[in-house]
Amino acid sequence: MTTYDPTLPAAPALRIASLVPSITELLFHLGLGPRMVARTGFCVHPAEGVAAVPKVGGTKDVNLAKLRRLAPTHVIVNVDENRAETAQALQTFVPQVLVTHPRGPEDVETLIAQLATTFQREPTVAERAAELRLDLRRALDAATADAESSVLYLIWREPWMTVARDTYISRLLARVGWHTWPELEGGEHGAARYPVVRGDEPGLARVREVLLSSEPYAFEAVHMDAARALCPGARVRLVDGELLSWYGPRTVSGLRYLQELRRT
After folding, report:
1. Residue 107, Cβ density class (10 Å: 0-12 exposed, 13-18 middle, ≥19 buried)
2. Which entry of 10, 109, 118, 148 is 20 to 30 Å from 128 by CA?
């Protein structure tokens, strides 16, 4: 565990920008909210905390000029959430750009450790990181798969879009025995990680659960019949996309949420 060492020389005042909604929430959880100087408009949690942090556009359309004026010492980006050219541009004026890419719930512990090491001079970080890592290990150990079944997790419509098996969402679902269809991996980055579903694929007949996420597309009850037509033999349910796609503190909540869904 990384500990705060008061004998270390003083570091420049931290000025953290997060371009990743999950990580913005995680930074506040670790006690780093007062060091935040920028966020995206999609960084909405914790609501009271982020209200005081300036917005610098979206995850895909970052206002680099505004971000430069805010003079961050650290900017945190993500392979899925942000564009590669954004990360490259940041490296021209930001002292430290942290690139993150958790591809499953097991990777979140590494992410927490990365942040704890990077911001180890902040007195609250080590203790809070250790507590969260312990909670995560317990939640991972408690997640069980009593049965296996095929699920279609939809994130968009017109066209229908789902998730590849090497995404965080798919690997979280797999912890409780829900294996996403189609049986493919999308690679490190790019559109293949979120494939389009045409609706005529033979494999859809084997799907037993269709999960309609609340984000990035805000599915509602009115979309359930159309989704059911894709997989006539499946049950269709609306699910909380934040709990199933945000990592950090929500990984623990997401695993518990999935276990409850599996029981119903």
Report:
1. middle
2. 10
Whether 161 shows a pLDDT value over 80: the answer reads yes
* Residue 169, helix vs strand vs coil: helix
Residues in Cβ contact with 33 at an 8 Å cutoff, skipping those fewer than 6 apart? 27, 46, 49, 53
CATH number of 16-141: 3.40.50.1980
Sign of CA dihedral 255, 23, 81, 193: negative
- Determine the topology of domain 149-263 in CATH: Rossmann fold (3.40.50)
Residue found by looking up tokens 């609501």 in the block: 47
Domain 16-141 and domain 149-263, same fold? Reply is yes
**pTM of the prediction?**
0.90
Work out the angle between the directed axes of helices 21-29 and 249-263 (0-180°, nearest 10): 110
- Name the pairing type of β-strands 36-39 and 74-78: unpaired
Domain ranges of the chain: 16-141, 149-263
Nearest CA-CA partner of 162 in 146, 187, 138, 181: 181
Q: What is the mean pLDDT of the chain?
A: 93
Task: Report the C-alpha gap between 180 and 170 in whole angstroms.
Answer: 6
